[in-house]
Amino acid sequence: MSVYSLRARERPTVSTPVTWEEVRACAEGGDPELLVFTARDVVARVAEQGDLFADARSLVQSLPSLS
């Protein structure tokens, strides 16, 4: 699965990054639907919040050697 990809379902929801505040609200409220987004929802979220995945695309990491 990839960020911003539509899921092949009867109701096509979208894989989208969320904030820790949204995760907390979902956990505290016990309502997993708080983290379900349609394509229209995601377009509005990006317009309001920007691309929450943008930093991950440009992040440079040094990984330890596996040998």
Task: Describe the overall structure.
- With 67 residues, the chain is mainly alpha-helical.
- The chain has one domain.
- It is built from 3 helices and no strands.
- It has helices at 20-29, 39-49, 54-58.
- The protein is extended and about 45 Å long.
- It starts with 19 loop residues before the first helix and ends in a 9-residue tail after the last helix.
Give a summary of the structure in a few sentences.
Helix content is 39%, strand content 0%. By secondary structure, the protein is an all-alpha fold. The protein has one domain (1-59).
Biggest beta-sheet profile:
none
Q: Which H/E pattern describes the elements?
A: HHH
Number of H/I helices: 3
Q: Please compute the radius of gyration using only Cα atoms.
A: 15 Å
Unreliable stretches covering 5 or more consecutive residues: none
Q: Strand portion, in percent?
A: under 5%
Straight-line N-to-C gap:
29 Å
Shape: extended
The average pLDDT score comes to 92
Total discrete domains: 1
- Fraction of residues in H or I helices: 25-40%
Give the tally of β-strands.
0
| Helix/strand structural class | mainly alpha
Highlighted features:
67 residues, 3 helices
How is this fold's topology laid out?
Layout (H helix, E strand, L loop, with lengths): L19 H10 L9 H11 L4 H5 L9
